[in-house]
Amino acid sequence: MAEDDDEREAIARLYRRAAFGLAPGELDDLAALGVDTVIDRLVDGDAHGVPAAPDDPWAGLELPLFDSGGAAVDAVDRWLDLLLGAARPFEEWMAWYWHGHLVSSVAVVVHVPTMVGQIRLLRRAGLGSFADLLRAITVDAAMLRYLDGGESTAAAPNENYSRELLELFALGVGSFTEDDVQAGARALTGWRIVADIANPDPVAAAGRGELVAANHDDTPQRYLGRRGVHDVDTVIDAVVSHEACAPFVASRLARAVLGPEADPGLLRDLGRRFRDADLDLRVLARGVLEAVAEGRTAGLVLGPMPWLLAAQRATGAVLDPEARHWALYDAGHLPFWPPNVGGWPGGANWLTSSTTAQRYTLAGAVAAATAVDHPARRAAAAGDLAALADALGRPAGF
After folding, report:
1. Residue 104: CB partners within 8 Å, gap ≥ 6?
2. Domain termination site, one of 201, 216, 241
3. Half-sphere exposure of 193 toward its Cβ, with a 13 Å CA cutoff?
């Protein structure tokens, strides 16, 4: 393969795995920039003149507090459209990634504006400091509702968030004890959701996390080997300073992009790089994307949602919003609706008979909505698999 072809494939691989695919003609434009510049633009749009995304794609949307039906359809549709046409696709991909890592679900949260508020947070903080992101998500209203932190008091500490913080969000199994879970739960007591119903912003009106000192147990705890832990700040400091944090977070993100069977040595290197950068997510992201560009990837099954958006992006197909919403729901990969606190299962779970059948249905809808003069449609009609692969963002072929 010629060097130019190598660059085209490297860029296409980046966009398949971490940017919701490529629009027609986009690969040629990006290849002219070169893969190094493409990575720079993906990781730090501000520094490289990439137009900013809308601050709030949900602006002007009716978001009644007690409606997880129609309001959820509208809110999810706005987000999907943002992901589909993002000027900074990797930044938006990171928000989507965190939605499946630092999990909340509208099935439990119920309040759609509260879920929208959490997605705003993930978009805003998803490529900054992991410590700052973890601190913010801990007292986010959706998380307080989802894992019962808003009901945890000194008299009755709730351990749900304390456990998932360590097991699923930051350290991994085997890195903590039950005593740590209990100590963390006590240090995190006293938070509740306070509504601001007069606020014209429906997200702000739905409420925010606020500490009620009278309900907080401020007793110093021994936690993850530290003494004196007694509140959110000292809990998060202990968590992000733990030796398991950097490798766990780096490995989770890297495997989501590189594939579940990514090289263990590469994962260790990324963990060290992340640790040495004081858990700067932009540094970690750059390392992961550089590995993708170098071809240090393993097999990766895209979930139905990013797969569908990539298909829409490649073909220009416009789908009925409600039909798309319920098709993704049936496929088990609808934003706002992760199945449990562990997020979406991924991997071979996306190859079951039921999810495969849903993909066929979605593929048929995309094909039907693709213009007859689109390069992909013409290539398919002519039986030209090489041209079809290139039109669908796979220049090296299927």
Report:
1. 115, 118, 140, 142, 143, 145, 146, 147, 338
2. 241
3. 24
Q: How far apart are CA 193 and CA 141, in angstroms?
A: 6
CA angle 203, 197, 63 (to 5 degrees): 40
User: Closest Cα partner for 101 from 129, 126, 65, 82?
Assistant: 126
Q: Nearest CA to 80 among 372, 347, 337, 361?
A: 337
Q: Indicate whether 372 belongs to any domain.
A: yes
Nearest CA among 100, 123, 176 for reference residue 336:
100
Is residue 117 located within the same domain as residue 224? Answer: yes
Q: 3-class DSSP state for residue 183?
A: helix
In a domain, 281, yes or no: no
Region for 319 from its dihedrals, namely left if φ exceeds 0, alpha if ψ lies in -120 to 50, beta otherwise: beta
Task: Report the C-alpha gap between 104 and 49 in whole angstroms.
Answer: 33
The DSSP call for residue 221 is E
Q: Would you say how long the chain is, in residues?
A: 398
**Given 213, 241, 269, which residue is the final one in a domain?**
241
Q: What pTM was estimated for this model as a whole?
A: 0.95
pLDDT beyond 90 at 62:
no
Q: What is the pLDDT of residues 212-269, one digit of tens each?
A: 999 999 999 999 999 999 999 999 999 999 999 999 999 999 999 999 999 999 999 9
Mean of pLDDT values over 375-380:
91
Residue 312 in domain = yes
Which tens digits make up the pLDDT trace of 156-201?
999 999 999 999 999 999 999 999 999 999 999 999 999 988 888 8
Q: Mind listing the pLDDT tens digit for each residue in 307-353?
A: 999 999 999 999 999 999 999 999 999 999 999 999 999 888 999 99
What pLDDT was estimated at residue 2? Answer: 47
Q: What are phi and psi of 19, to 5 degrees?
A: -155, 20
Domain housing 221: 70-241
Domains in the chain: how many in total?
2
H/E stretch holding 396 reads none
DSSP, residue by residue, 364-385: HHHHHTS-TTSHHHHHHHHT-H
